[in-house]
C-alpha cells in the first residue's frame, strides 16, 4: 500500500537522520522532498501546500532544531500532521436507538458498492447484528444477482423486488426488516459511469423516503484525485456521513486516502483491501500514517 510514497518519505527521513544537528535549510530541503513525494502520490495540490507549510512552521522552531534528536522530532511532526490530515472518527456505524439502522450506500459503477454492501453486512453479522441487504441497483445487469450470490455466501438475506422503482424497494425493505427482526438495513443503490442529475435525483428520493442513519460513499482509491472529486460532489448533493475507500490492496498511490478528509470534510470510515468478504477494515488515521511513514 502506497509503496512509492512510503519509500520516498523514508529516504528523506533517513538522510535527515544522517545529518545529526539540523539547520533551517536542512528542514527546507526535506520539506521540498516531502512535497514532491506527496504530489507524485496524487495528493491534492492545495492539501500538499497546506500540509508542508504547517509541518515546516512547526519544524523550524528552536525547540526542534536545538533538540537532541531533531530528525526524530521532524518525523514525529510529519506523523502527527498526517494523522490530522486524515483525522476524525474511524470505522464505526452509528447504530440507531430504534431499529432498523438504515445504511445507504452510494457510488459510481465499479467502485465496489455491491461488494462492500455485502462486506459490511458480513462485518455487522459477526458483531451480532441481523442485517438485511437490499437490491436497489436495478439498472446494472446482474447487480441483483450479484448481491444475492454474495448474500448466500455470507448467509445474509437479500431483499429485492426486481426492477421496481428503487424508492419503493427501499421503503418496502424497511417494512420487511421490521417484520422479520432485521436490525440493520443496507441498501445497495445504483451507480452510473459518471455523476449525473438523474442519479442524484434518484438518490435524493431514496434518502428522503428512508431517512438513512448512515450515508456512505464507496469510492475507488485507484482513481486518485477523481475519487476526491466524486466524494466532493456526492457530499454537496446528498450530505455524506462517511466514505468507504476501496481497492487499497491494489497499486494505489495514496492521493485519495490523504486528500478526501482535507478537501471534502468527510471522514473515511472503512477501507476495502481485497475482493473477499472479510477484506474490509476500519480506517484508523494513526495506523495509516504509521504504515506510510514506516
Ligand atoms: P459496484 O459497481 O460499485 O457495485 O462494484 P462491485 O462491487 O461490483 O465491484 C467492482 C469490482 O471491484 C468487482 O470485481 C469487485 O470484486 C472488485 N472490488 C471491490 N472492492 C474491492 C477491493 O477492496 N479490492 C479489490 N482488489 N477489488 C475490489
TrEMBL record:
Residues 1-86 form the Signal recognition particle SRP54 helical bundle domain. It comes from the Bacteria. The keyword Hydrolase applies. GO terms for cellular component: signal recognition particle. GO terms for molecular function: 7S RNA binding; GTP binding; GTPase activity. GO terms for biological process: SRP-dependent cotranslational protein targeting to membrane. Keywords: Cytoplasm, GTP-binding, Hydrolase, Nucleotide-binding, Ribonucleoprotein, RNA-binding, Signal recognition particle. Residues 99-250 form the AAA+ ATPase domain. Composed of three domains: the N-terminal N domain, which is responsible for interactions with the ribosome, the central G domain, which binds GTP, and the C-terminal M domain, which binds the RNA and the signal sequence of the RNC. This is Signal recognition particle protein. It comes from Desulfosporosinus orientis (strain ATCC 19365 / DSM 765 / NCIMB 8382 / VKM B-1628 / Singapore I). The lineage of its organism: Bacteria, Bacillati, Bacillota, Clostridia, Eubacteriales. The gene is ffh. The chain holds residues 1 to 294 of 453 of the full protein.
Amino acid at each position: 500500500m502506497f509503496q512509492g510514497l512510503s519509500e520516498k518519505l523514508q529516504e528523506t527521513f533517513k538522510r535527515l537522520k544522517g545529518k545529526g544537528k539540523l539547520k533551517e535549510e536542512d528542514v527546507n530541503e526535506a520539506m521540498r522532498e516531502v512535497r514532491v513525494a506527496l504530489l507524485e502520490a496524487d495528493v491534492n495540490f492545495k492539501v500538499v501546500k497546506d500540509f508542508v507549510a504547517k509541518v515546516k512552521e512547526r519544524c523550524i522552531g528552536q525547540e526542534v532544531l536545538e533538540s537532541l534528536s531533531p530528525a526524530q522530532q521532524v518525523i514525529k511532526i510529519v506523523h502527527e500532521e498526517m494523522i490530522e490530515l486524515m483525522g476524525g472518527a474511524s470505522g464505526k456505524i452509528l447504530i440507531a436507538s430504534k431499529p432498523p439502522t438504515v445504511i445507504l450506500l452510494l457510488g459510481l459503477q465499479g467502485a465496489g458498492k455491491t461488494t462492500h454492501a455485502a462486506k459490511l453486512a458480513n462485518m455487522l453479522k459477526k458483531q451480532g447484528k441481523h442485517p438485511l441487504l437490499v437490491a436497489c441497483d436495478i439498472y446494472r445487469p446482474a447487480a441483483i444477482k450479484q448481491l444475492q450470490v454474495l448474500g448466500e455466501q455470507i448467509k445474509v438475506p437479500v431483499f429485492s423486488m426486481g426492477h421496481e422503482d428503487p424508492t419503493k424497494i427501499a421503503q418496502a425493505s424497511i417494512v420487511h426488516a421490521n417484520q422479520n427482526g432485521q436490525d440493520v438495513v443496507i441498501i445497495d443503490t445504483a451507480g452510473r459511469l459518471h455523476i449525473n442529475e438523474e442519479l442524484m435525483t434518484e438518490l435524493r428520493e431514496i434518502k428522503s423516503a428512508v431517512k438513512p442513519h448512515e450515508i456512505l460513499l464507496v469510492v475507488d482509491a485507484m482513481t486518485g484525485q477523481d475519487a476526491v472529486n466524486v466524494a466532493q460532489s456526492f457530499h454537496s448533493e446528498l450530505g455524506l456521513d462517511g466514505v468507504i475507500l476501496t481497492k487499497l490492496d491494489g497499486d494505489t498511490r495514496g492521493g485519495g486516502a490523504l486528500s478526501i478528509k482535507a478537501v471534502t470534510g468527510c471522514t473515511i470510515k472503512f477501507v476495502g483491501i481485497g475482493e473477499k468478504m472479510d477484506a474490509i477494515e476500519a480506517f484508523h488515521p494513526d495506523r495509516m500514517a504509521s504504515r506510510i511513514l514506516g
